Amino acid sequence: MLNDDCSAENQETDETKFYNEAELLEIQSEIRLLRNFYELANSIEKNSKGEKLLTALSQGFQKAKELKASPKAIIFTESTKTQNYIYKILSTSNHQNKVVLFNGSNNDEKSREIYKNWIEKYRGTDKVSESKTANMRQALVDYFKEEADIMIATEAAAEGINLQFCSLVINYDLPWNPQRIEQRIGRCHRYGQKFDVVVINFLNKKNAADQRVYELLNNKFKLFEGIFGASDEVLGAISSGIDFEKRIADIYQTCRNPEEINKAFDELQSEFESSIDESFKSAKQKLLENFDEEVREKLKISKSKTENLITKYHKWLWDLTKYYLSDKAVFNNTALEFTLTENPFPQINLNLGPYSMIGRENANHNIYRSRHPLAKEIINRALKLDSREGSVEFNYSKSQIKISILKKFIGKSGYLSVELLKMHAYDDEEILLLAGHTNAGESLSEEEIHRLFSLEANVEEDLNQIPNSSLEKLSLAINLSKDFYIANNEQRNAQVFDEEIERLERWADDKKLSIEVKLKELELEIKQTKKEAIQQISLEAKLNLQRKAKDLEKKRKDLRFKLYDLQDAIDIEKENLISMTEQKLKAKISLETVFRIKWTLI
Predict the structure, then answer these.
(1) Are residues 367 and 500 located together in one domain of the fold?
(2) What is the tens place of the pLDDT at every residue in 426-455?
(3) Looking at residue 151, what is its pLDDT?
(4) The total number of structural domains that make up the chain
(5) Domain boundaries, position 169
(6) What gap in Å lies between CA 350 and CA 344, rounded to an integer?
(7) Within this chain, do residues 195 and 116 fall inside the same structural domain, yes or no?
């Protein structure tokens, strides 16, 4: 048996050492092909993509100058090799000494020098944390903000850093995962950003697959349109970005001509189209339901689509403006326009002449919005008015529209109270609570009270005292309303918390899947390298391949540690989120009386 085994082993070894003539010819042909690739690569002296980058930066900075934005740009790449290549190009341009690198290791000489100087500058302050990694990241961001014009970054800069002082994002390598693209843009397009964020994407127009990827990301995911980009809801339609990325990778690997590429992308787009369109429609509807007047213009939404949503806000500001400017302006109620004849606030530089609450193409009109200096001053003064208790007579007969819910109160009187509820919790919120009743004890709903205040009215007299029975009834109604809003606020906070946890877990799944995919690829590459080493005749070739396998195994080990570190980072993020939420949910609730009145409806 021993001899048989040895014989089999020798036979297998012989098969791995000797090749037939056809196989040797094929190997020689492959060697020649690889040598040609090598010579071709060495012969390339210019990279058109790198040259275009200089053009893009020049145009981007020129536009920033016109907008009076800081000349800052972040360039995203997929690898440190590309990062170093770009750094080399920029170091020989007029951007020399104005470039900083940002990657997973940050161990280049300049980064170490930046870190050393940063530590010296902030030693002994709260800005220096116990984490060297966090300190290094902050040091590089501060250097970018204060010294450099350009940051060249790998995906490490797409997570957890704030670059709202930068408004130019360049995707030198455009990833296929739309969630990663959104993360990149989100580093700059965030609270505190004062300018429109410009995104420049590098695209090979001669590559049909590249074109279809960009078309899908731009037209379906809306990643580069408008002032908001893709919402979480739209991106959520694809479930995992890694799965989506793998689908695109399969197309690149299997399709060999434009027809196959287009067919595969048509199928991919069709699969996600309905869910993406529905999610985008839902996100847009939520936006329309929660904007103020200025947003409509910025989003270029037509008046016909939003008229029913903004009428209420327009009317409130319109009525308040009429009250304050009754002797300083002439009003056209139908067109929502007025002509300011005298400046009511000399300390403010105001234009006399026509003002319009609805945008006019006529350059002679001043567009009147809640953020206009005149409106802001009127609102501020209204908030400071002395809200005395008084008797108010509302006139239904002068109303130009029928308000059916108020008809039953004509000829009746009663009392009502307006209270301001302030909640300083997860988000600060202020709500006006309304309560009222007739003298006969019939309660008024919030909607009915709102409608009362839409009528013309006269203040009859100061109110000396409200009966205790009415005060108790009003107080009970206000407290019930307060409890409702507090419970509603807690429910929304809980929903926000759940969404944040879910978003964190989706991000974690994407990161873990990405590492696991790379681990699987390394496993295959290690096995293939070792197999090739066994098949080599030359000892030198065997040693080189075994050394390559050893290097790959080290990368695999590093990735495994990275996976462990990622899990620790996720746990820390969850703990931070929980702690932050606990602090925010220590709600401070206050209730103050705005006014109480005796009302009569005629």
Answers:
(1) no
(2) 667 788 899 999 999 899 998 889 888 888
(3) 95
(4) 4
(5) 56-288
(6) 9
(7) yes
Cα–Cα distance for residue pair 296/285, rounded to 1 Å: 13
The residues, any chain, with a CB within 8 Å of residue 39's CB and separated by 6 or more, are: none
In a domain, 51, yes or no: no
Question: What is the SS3 assignment for 279-307?
Answer: HHHHHHHHHHCCCCHHHHHHHCCCHHHHH
Looking at the structure, tell me whether residues 471 and 406 fall in a common domain: yes
- Which of 173-211 are b and which e, b meaning 16 or more Cβ less than 10 Å from the residue's Cβ? bbbbbbbbbbbbbbbbbeeebebebbbbbbeeeeebbbb
Tell me, yes or no, whether 10 and 158 share the same domain.
no
- 217, HSE (Cβ side, Cα atoms, 13 Å): 24
CA-to-CA distance for 253 and 232, rounded, in angstroms?
A: 29
Do 466 and 516 fall within a single domain? yes
pLDDT digit string, tens, across residues 265-281? 777 777 666 656 655 55
Residue for token pair 């002068």: 398
pLDDT in tens, 137-170: 899 999 999 999 999 998 776 666 788 899 899 9
| Tens digits of residue pLDDT in 404-416 | 888 889 999 999 9
Residues 268 and 187 in one domain: yes
DSSP for residue 218: I
Residue 296 forms part of a structural domain: no
Question: Does one domain contain both 277 and 378?
Answer: no
For the entire predicted model, the pTM comes to 0.45
**Could you tell me the two tokens for 48?**
């058109």
Same domain, 433 and 546: yes
Q: What is the band of 227 on the pLDDT scale with cuts at 50, 70, 90?
A: very low
**CA–CA separation, 354 and 374 (whole Å):** 13
